[in-house]
Amino acid sequence: MELLKETIAKIDSLDEKKMDEAQARLDSLTKPPGSLGKLEEIAIKLAGITEDLFAKVDQKVHVVMAGDHGVVEEGVSTVPQAVTTQMVYNFLNEGAAVNALANQVGAEVTIVDIGVASEIESEKLVVKKVKPGTNNLAKGPAMTKQEAIASIEAGIEVVQDLIDNGANLIGTGEMGIGNTTPSSAILTIMTDLSLDETVGYGTGINDEQLKKKKEIIKEALEVNQPQEDDALDILAKVGGLEIGGIAGVMLGATANQTPVMIDGLISGAAALIAQKLEPQVTNYLIPSHKSVEPGHIRMYELLGLEPMLDMDMRLGEGTGAVLGMNLVEAATRIINDMATLEEAEVEANKAG
Ligand SMILES: O=C(O)c1ccc[n+]([C@@H]2O[C@H](COP(=O)([O-])O)[C@@H](O)[C@H]2O)c1
Ligand SMILES: Cc1cc2nc[nH]c2cc1C
User: What is annotated as the active site (predicted)?
Assistant: First the structure.
C-alpha cells in the first residue's frame, strides 16, 4: 500500500502557465487560431503535463498487461482461457496486431504477465504475476484487497522502470480472455446505467451468451456487494489483474508527469479505477479510439474525455492506443516545427 500512497501523493495538477504559453504559441503559428482543432488541444495538454512547451514523444512505449479470469468458466467469452497464453507468445514473437501497429508508430512493446493462468517462459516477458488468474466473480470476490493493491503497484513499478529509461509517451493495452465482463461490471457499479448500456459482445458472443453475461454480472454484484465509492473494493470484488495493472501504469505515469494513452473498454475501466483513487489522473490521460463496446463511450463521459477516433475496433491489446500515438506525435510536430506568422513574414520580405 505504501507505493500506491506515495505515488498518489506525488500527483500534481497541470501546469496552467505552460498551457497558456502553448495556446499563445499555437495562435502565433501560420494558421487561423484554433484551426487544427483537437491537435491543438493535445499540444496544450502535453505542455501542461510535461511543463515543456516543446514536448516530444520520441520514446513511445506500449504496455500490454496480460491476465486470466475465473469467470470464463461461466461461458462469457467465445474462446477458451488458453487463448490468453497463446496471444502472449504471439506478442513476444511480434505477430499480433498491436505489434504491427506499434512498429508503424515506432513504439516499443512491453508485455507483462500480471496474472496469466499458465507459466510462460521468455526472457522478453516482464513477470509481475500477482496470481494465476482471478477467481470467478460470480461466486465471490475475484481477488483479495491485498491482491488488488499488488496489481496496481505492479503497474506502478513497470511504468517507473520505463520512464526511468526515457519513455515519454506510454500506451496501455491488455490481453485477457473474459476481461470485458469485469470491465462492464466496474462501469455498472460506478453508474446508474442499465446492463443493456454497459455490457457488449466482447470477442463476439451470440445474443444468448450476451443475456447470460448480463446475468453473471448481476449475480456478481449481488454476491459481492461492492462499495461504489471504494475503488480498491470494486477492483477486488469484480477484478481484473490487468485492470489493476493498467490503473497502476496510469497513476505511475501521472506521478511522473508523463502522458498515457487510454485504449478500449478494459483500459477505460482501469482509468475509472485510477480516477476514483486520484481524480487528477484524467488530466494526464490521452483518449484514443471509441470501442464498439457500448459501455466505452460512457466511460469516456465519466472521465470527461472525448475519443479522437471511431474506427469500429474492438480488439483490445492497446491497438487503439498505439494508433492514437500517431495523433499525439502529430500534435508535437505542429508546436515544434511550424513557423510563426512573424517568421513567415520575415522570410516573405527577404524573398521579395
Ligand atoms: O478493447 C476493447 O474494447 C475490447 C472489446 C472486446 C474484446 N476485447 C479483447 O478481447 C478479450 C476480451 O473479450 P471477452 O469476450 O473474452 O470478454 C480481451 O483479450 C480483450 O483484449 C477488447
Ligand atoms: C485471437 C484473439 C486475439 C485477441 N487480442 C485481444 N483479445 C483477443 C481475443 C482473441 C480471440
Answer: 317
